[in-house]
Design a protein that fits this description.
The structure is a single chain. The chain is of the alpha+beta class and about 400 residues long. The chain contains 13 helices and 16 strands. A five-stranded mixed sheet has the order 2-1-3-13-6. The protein is globular, with a radius of gyration of 23 Å.
Length: about 400
């Protein structure tokens, strides 16, 4: 009976959309009819999400489903906060079949599963993203630039153009924040700061990652560029968002088609991209977006069936991401949707963190992306290399009676 459907509390990340109540009513009408379940959302803003989630878990605050990541997952399992859903997966065969085995292995801890992984850009690919106007002006052959050594000459060309006034929107060719270049550690599965295993090392030897040749080459070039005035002088202290929106070239994790959105975020009319690393499946990339069920939930089975709906029902998935058709988005009829606020102002009133909800593969891409953008993403995932540590999660706890050989690293 849809009228008596239980309501699940889902903890989400990001700001609460203005029209959340209206969209939730529409979602609940659909899900109550389909599977006899409703949902209510608790949004925790970006800046407080991590601390609030930890406090909720330690305090035993009630919830049914919680978005989380590798920062939370293992510690929450050790606390006993997340339900072991391994044996329950037989109740959701469509979900099990839809998500590839490699992606399931990324959330497997000691042969048990405590989360539904979000099947999206689950394999990491890193791109150099260039302002097309600058590439054309300076004749930069961006398709041939993959390594830091390849970047050296083009960055000097860009800095010369900045210095002589041909480029006026920035002062440095390679602006960098204190966290470093996006994705610079992607070749290593790191279990603890400074230590890790290279993703393609079949011997799975633990190394001091910062001393490895490939990272040393990056650090050497970064220091050289810093000395030459190509990198901003405050790179060691600058935080995300402090350098302005425009940059000629930078690194980003994504997939074919993502460049449409990247242009706007980088203050460019158009960008061109070239992959420099990946795609690689690792435990860390898969655990970038997962949803777990509370071990204290009264509705574990219903929560799992709800996550199956989110990840296998295209109508529900698109409503969850985009809101109500005609109010928050327009269906273009070509496999894409319109979300430009100058065309449909209501789009501004509903824009949750879609990556934290469920799969990308059922979504209609937002125009001007191509209708097959997520199909290309799925094809890219299928070509991904598998890290030798995929399925392994570092256990930070020390020796115990049951595991006397454990190593204490705290």
């Amino acid at each position: 009976d849809p009228a008596n459907a239980p309501t699940l509390r889902w903890i989400q990340i990001g700001g609460q959309p203005n029209d959340i109540e209206e969209v939730t009513d529409a979602l609940n009408e659909y899900s109550a009819e389909k599977i006899g379940v409703k949902v209510e959302f608790t949004f925790l803003d970006w800046g407080v999400w991590g601390e609030r989630v930890k406090a909720m878990l330690q305090g035993g605050e009630p919830f049914d489903i919680m978005f989380n990541t590798s920062d939370i997952y293992v510690s929450a399992i050790n606390l006993g906060s997340f339900a072991d859903i391994t044996d329950m997966l037989s109740e959701v065969p469509d979900l099990v079949e839809f998500i590839p085995d490699d992606v399931w292995s990324g959330v497997t801890i000691d042969d048990r599963i405590y989360a539904v992984p979000t099947y999206k850009d689950s394999a990491q690919t890193q791109y150099w993203v260039w302002d097309k106007e600058v590439v054309d002006m300076l004749g930069i052959e961006y398709e041939n630039i993959h390594t830091y050594a390849d970047l050296d000459e083009p960055l000097h060309l860009v800095q010369e153009a900045i210095n002589d006034g041909r480029i006026t929107k920035c002062n440095y060719a390679f602006p960098t924040v204190k966290g470093g270049v996006n994705g610079f550690m992607m070749n290593y599965d790191a279990g603890v700061a400074g230590l890790g295993v290279r993703y393609d090392d079949e011997t799975a030897t633990v190394v001091r990652v910062h001393e490895q040749e490939d990272l040393m080459e990056q650090y050497t070039y970064m220091h050289k560029w810093y000395e030459e005035g190509i990198i901003n002088p405050d790179a060691s202290t600058a935080a995300e968002g402090e350098l302005g929106s425009y940059c000629v070239v930078g690194s980003a994790q994504g997939f074919p088609g993502a460049e449409t959105g990247w242009a706007q975020g980088r203050g460019c009319d158009e960008v061109v991209i070239e992959a420099w690393g990946g795609p690689v499946y690792s435990t860390g990339t898969i655990q970038g977006s997962i949803n777990s069920i509370s071990s204290n939930s009264e509705y574990k089975s219903e929560a799992l069936k709800y996550l199956q709906l989110v990840n296998t029902d295209a109508n529900y998935r698109n409503m969850l991401a985009y809101g109500i058709e005609g109010e928050h988005y327009i269906d273009n009829g070509d496999g894409t949707v319109e979300r430009d606020q100058t065309v449909i102002p209501g789009a501004a009133d509903y824009g949750p963190a879609s990556y934290a909800q469920g799969t990308y593969m059922l979504l209609k891409p937002v125009s001007p992306n191509s209708p097959d953008m997520y199909q290309k993403l799925e094809e890219m995932n299928e070509t991904a290399e598998r890290s030798v540590l995929l399925g392994f999660t570092f256990n930070r706890t020390g020796p115990t009676d049951s595991d006397p050989d454990a190593v204490n690293v705290e």
